[in-house]
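Class, look over these structure tokens:
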Amino acid sequence: MPNVSLKFDVLLPYSWTNDELYTYKSNKQIEPGTLVSIPIQNREIIGLVIRRSSDNNCVKNLKEVKEVLNYHLNAKTIKWMNIASKYTLIPMHQILKMILVSYKNNKPGYFETNIIINNLEPGKYPLEMLKTNWIKLKKMIKEGEISETKFPTSSIPIDADFFSDDQIYAINQINHMANQHHIITLQGSTGSGKTNVYFEAIAKALEQKKQVLVLVPEISLTSQLIERFHDRFKVYPYRWYNSCKQPIWDWASKEESGVLIGVRSALWAPFNNLGLIIVDEEHSTTYKQENGPRYNAKDIAILKAKSENIPIILVSATPSLETLHNIQTSNYKHIQLTRTIPHKLNIQLVKTKTWMSTELQKHIQITLNKKEQVMLFLNRKGFSTHIYCSTCSNRLLCKACTAGLIFHKSNHTHCSYCAQKSDLPSACPECKAEDSWKFYGLGIEKIHENIQKLFPNNIVSILSSDTTEVIDETMHKMENSEIDILIGTQILAQGCHFPNLTLVGIVQGDIGIHSGDIRNTERMYQLISQVKGRCGRADKPGTVIIQTSDDSHPLLHAIAHENVDHWLEQELQIRKQHNLPPFSRIIRIIISSKSAALTEKIALSIHKPKIPGIEIMGPAPAQLYKYNNDYRWSFLIQYNKKSFPQLQISKWIQSMKLPKNIKLTIDVDPQSFF
């Protein structure tokens, strides 16, 4: 009997498709959700089978599916992709591309596997990450050099005295909600045991042979979390590495239980048996993708949990105002933890015009004399934040952006927006004066240099996103009291535990709180609260000194007097009075091109429709007018929180008929407005 060709509609991950489905034939029965290899213009690309086709085209005129791949996205995942696309206005082909980017061209080879094998530690690597050299692995298993340990699927007994009453209550509440969709907020100050609580939720999911996704803000800061995970479960979780995602695909696409820890892109792993999602430090701005397709991983994770009918736990000591508002007005389940040991903190607000007040310097010396550790926080990378020509007063700007450059001690500059780096020019580009640069503004490199002069006999280290290659080493040294003074940026706000750290200095506590960004004050509250929570965590009392040039700001007073709940209520009232998020929603549309004149012309020519309940503001030049060599204008769309105007906005966007050299960026619920 001859083979009968069947027709299938396939989604391709390319913009030229405009989300249209393309029809291909195959003599195999292919289930919807299957990944297939498709021939396109003398090359092969990966597509997603959506359905059997009802196309009337003759089968013989269709191209044939080249290969049916051994990966399948289940119906819940495809439903979630559609929901995420409609919410974020990211086209389906881009959603598929974000899923596939971790699959294509990412197969770890013999060399990478051998590096892992040669550096094996007990329980360190999931077996799937080693299978590319399976012959060598089987030999090592046979000879007893390594062994396979499965994720536990039965409860691991723990001493009942390990948990406080608050924690036991929280664990019971979460377990009660384990088998259906709930949005759970787990709030508690640093040191209250949030991680131990959500570990028990993970244990419950593993007992049910489910998969678990744990989202974290920074993968480079997960070493302590990974070790704590191993202490609890006796195995290591999967980690979402850029260079080693193929084995995670192999695991996630099966129904095998396990845990994946990763940053926002881990959300796109092809889970087929997901039972729980955890978003750690849910307030973190790094969950928002600011380049490429714009999305907030926390929001998309909530949509995923709803489509999978599973619980999601949002964890933070300082939840976002959006989350706090949802606790008050929506169906978010709120669980609050208190510290098992009172947090003994002496918080001082110090007004100063210099980078180092007498009070802070005195406390640093006292702390060092006691052989205890100091942490200094300033959310400014580099050496100096402003570079001026002393001859013509020209400020050195990024060539790709209308933004000032930051100077680093290594004699290079970088742009904090587009991240371009370059050598410091020897002459001013405006007046051509040689060696005329003057450096202003404080960065952590300058603090590092000055601290080394003030305390020459002490070990001083620096930590920021510029030093990610030494993060694990620096953290290890801090844990073992091999560093006396640690200086860093917001990377210090992430969850880390240093028992001997008893002094935190906030060098400039008022950075950003007077800017026009509606969220900057909230971010400073979260950063300062998280950083100050790093000290006095063990049995030693801690001191926090917040330096400021303006000691009258309500936020700083609230933190100093540990009365932030009142400040948060006031901040919510201010937002409500001005109808700002979370009491309304915003969509930002950015029109950009390489030509300033063309961008302005197109932006001003766009007709704004009148849509009930929706206010469209603009167009206007973007706050950062030139960004990454593009000139930008933007619209702001504000609407009622309970509305869902994405369909009308999508139709408006489709009606724009923009030229090919004009780029359109859509940002639903923007977190920044540069």
